[in-house]
Amino acid sequence: MSSSWEGDAFDPECPTRVVLDRVGDKWTVLIIEILDEGPKRFSEIRVAIGGITPKVLTSTLRSLVADGLVTREVFAEVPPRVEYALTELGRSLQEPVAALRRWAELNVAAISESRDHHEDATMLRGS
Known about the structure:
Blueprint: H1 16-23, H2 26-35, E1 40-41, H3 42-49, H4 54-66, E2 70-75, E3 81-86, H5 88-125
Antiparallel strand pairs: 1-3, 2-3
Helix pairs in contact: 2-5
């Protein structure tokens, strides 16, 4: 597939959906934001994010490396040192990810209020 090919995310067979699933994942968004600061070790990413299990972080990092968004560099040291960094493709995702995070931070109160209102209305209807 050439790099100029454009997908159609509304087509159920389009691989764009897989890409959207990856970049829309909450952990991916946070990892992209953390790695925008520069290369980080696994433990630095885990501490910076908070709440992510080592298993989920490992899985997400592997997927990001496979997708070409993140590099994994192993240093021949004792003990071994591994660093993760954004690729050029990963850096191109940082701006939209940062905008999405900012939007979520700005609107979390309104969304929370709407959820509370919806839950209250649902309880009153008994459904």
